[in-house]
Amino acid sequence: MNGPLDGIVVVDLSRALAGPHAGMMLGDLGARVIKVEAPGGDESRGWGPPFVTEGVSTYFLSANRNKESVTADLKTDTGRILLTRLVRQADVLIENFRTGVLDRLGFSIERLHQINPRLVVLSITGFGHDGPEGGRPGYDQIAQGEAGLMSLTGPGPDQPTRVGVPIGDLLAGIYGAYGVVAALYERERTGRGTVVRTSLLASIVGVHAFQGTRWTVAGEVPRAIGNHHPSIAPYGLFHTADDPIQVAVGNDTQWRTFAALLGITDPRYDTNAARVEQRERLIADIEAALARDKADVWLAKLAEAGIPAGRVRTLDQVYTWEQTRSQGLLIETEHPVLGRLTLPGPPLRFDHHPGRKHTSPPLLGEHNESVAAWLDECER
Known about the structure:
- It is a single chain.
- The chain is α/β, with parallel strands linked by helices.
- The chain is built from 17 helices and 13 strands.
- The chain has helices spanning about 20-30, 60, 75-90, 100-105, 110-115, 140-145, 150, 165-190, 200-205, 210-215, 250-260, 270-275, 280-290, 295-305, 315-320, 320-325, 370-380; strands at about 10, 30-35, 50-55, 55, 65-70, 90-95, 120-125, 195-200, 235-240, 245-250, 310, 330-335, 340-345.
- Strand 1, helix 1 and strand 2 form a beta-alpha-beta unit.
- Helix 1 (about 20-30) crosses helix 8 (about 165-190).
- The mean pLDDT is about 95.
């Protein structure tokens, strides 16, 4: 067993990031993922620098482990025949074409379910497949702006800032994989596949959390306030004598412990509501106290006192951190051109399950022959 989805076959027609991330998640869980690429390949193969070698971008490597690659021009009879054969054997098909493209290629939802009634289809779009702006093309940063995330992010309300990773793409992939697993479970009862739809817009709105209800319930329009929480204080980034640290004081009991540690006795800070109202003065008082010592000293004191706190790490520090490695968040694979590769690993672990043996992101068309041979065997 390679994972809980062992035996599930996924045909991944997607490119760039949202769909490929969903496919990679399913592959991490043990599914066999066959990535169908146009003869020129997924465009993210060319998104760089950095490139490890010609035609191999680190961007592509980040979203395509545990997959096989076959090439097909779906505008040709040969390409359409190959896709038809794959669909017959598949459990899941992933696509992130613009609305209507798959129909024009001859693979409408109705046609796909004629070929294979048990097929689960994951369709990811930018802003949804219907509605007044259905079919509108979507790229992550555009969606971050349109879906309100940039207005909540950054140093202040006049400096909207994108998140440092393509979070809309990634969330759409995560929601998509989650929907696929639910649809596969439903198929066990009904015997039929269904269509799972999500979008960059939906995925970002789906994580508005308390910021969304600030508007829908309280009528407040949230805006960016930098590295501090809008509803809890102190909760954010603070400067010490050398490096910044982050501190999260989640209740008044923790506050009393934290205040005593720092020597802050002002009764105007006794409740969270009062601390939020006086956040700027509170931050100044905390940083004046923290300036007495270095980050390492404060982190040790805060840990001993039971106050949640942490460093602000760069990615090299994250990936060399023993805690990261202990969680299986780095994996080793063998690439046919690059040799031994270290990749960020899957974020899920299952007790009493060893997990799958991971494979490197494939070369373009690397599995044309082996997949064709498998299809021949299936059709005998």
